[in-house]
Amino acid sequence: MSLSYSALKGATSETVRQAIRTGQYRGHTAGLCPGLLQANLVILPEDYALDFMRFCQRNPRACPLVGVSDTGVPSIEMLGHFDLRSDLPAYNAYRSGVLADSPSDISTLWRDDLVAFALGCSFTFEAALQAAGIALWHIENDTTVPMFRSAIRAKSAGPFEGPVVVSMRAVPQERLTEVQAISARFPHAHGAPVHTGDPAKIGIADLNRPDWGDPAPVPPDHVPVFWACGVTPQAAIAAARPSFCITHKPGHMLIADIPDQAEALDILDLP
Amino acid sequence: MSLSYSALKGATSETVRQAIRTGQYRGHTAGLCPGLLQANLVILPEDYALDFMRFCQRNPRACPLVGVSDTGVPSIEMLGHFDLRSDLPAYNAYRSGVLADSPSDISTLWRDDLVAFALGCSFTFEAALQAAGIALWHIENDTTVPMFRSAIRAKSAGPFEGPVVVSMRAVPQERLTEVQAISARFPHAHGAPVHTGDPAKIGIADLNRPDWGDPAPVPPDHVPVFWACGVTPQAAIAAARPSFCITHKPGHMLIADIPDQAEALDILDLP
Questions:
Q1: CB contact under 8 A, A265 and B192
Q2: pTM score of the predicted model
Q3: Burial of B180 per CB tally in 10 Å (0-12, 13-18, 19+)
């Protein structure tokens, strides 16, 4: 049997993770397990890992590293107790930079030379925005946030290069300053917006045609606000064409065991 | 000829860097070039670079990465225009984890397989503390801050493991809260203290016998405050015994071209 998004909304992390692990839920994770950190996932052969980690270090807004596995180990101890091979609802597997498959389990694809990277995710500041009473259209309408390739270039590292991918949320004009301040509190989750207002200024021609996710409206008296997005590494991977790579499927994230609202150093603290 | 610390205090970064590059100044850099970021330096063969970068990611208070070079390139573009082989006043070179030499120039030691890591440094928050009117004994007395191996264990990564090394500054009791808040603003420069008060609680037997640097007094009505310190990786390197390694000599830092007081994402921002 399969479970619907609404059946899992409000469920405990045990219930959600169990539903994912057993293949009963393969949908997106936005709004699930409120209070827990969600993260983007990138898995690469060790040969690419140092360059990819340099790419993340040089592009911290787009690629805020919150955890890195040991080589060949499908878990990230600092972030909780999960199996990276089975505990995300959907993955994208790439060969030579080309999408080869979107499985819901990667146990048969796992190898001893793989390194997993967890990158902070916009869901963290979205939860904080919602707690402040700011409505988010894509969550209320059970869609995936719209994401765009921007004209802003990421800083390259080895073969990894490409555009900064941004996500867009429409914000009421009078709450713009507050929204910027709230998201800036979470540098491990993309931090403050990279752009506010005219999409053309960062090279986005049509807000109704996102490169990933679903379109979302910008109502009257609202402003489109753009944050650097964890899909940025996926674009860099398409450029780097690594022999092999697995990522989360956009919107279908790793759910960790640590608090969502922890600020930068708190989530990566001393023992 | 050689130049004294007091001759360079207040000098421009061009003057200071020129004095260092030409071997006229080989002293510590605390308090020099106010307004510019200073950083700890670790240089390792590429074979060790991924594990070392994981060590930094897992111990962000002790090892806040602010820049990583490309392999074989003795500069870090994001941090400014300097030559890592000549622009620090003193280095420590290790072979198999054992200190082999403390040269003032490493041009003849540089190799095509080396990777350089710059780690944020306490000088950043020290400048902010001084700006708030909090006196720092070691700067006023032209000594190196006292540093200790603590009983707190760093999170390991591959062969890199060991104690969290801490630096100590005595703070007036009534300004303690303020000092904690100021340093917390700089997560890329060790952030908030890891311990305040009784040194024995983190395994320090005698404040007058630091493992690195010079002793500093704790006057009446002052509290010893301990921050995670960029010498932590040097202790981890002693444990890992890499075939080859170069670090800055403690207190003798890399002076970058970017503002000291920039906060986390600002110093590593989008173009």
A1: yes
A2: 0.92
A3: middle
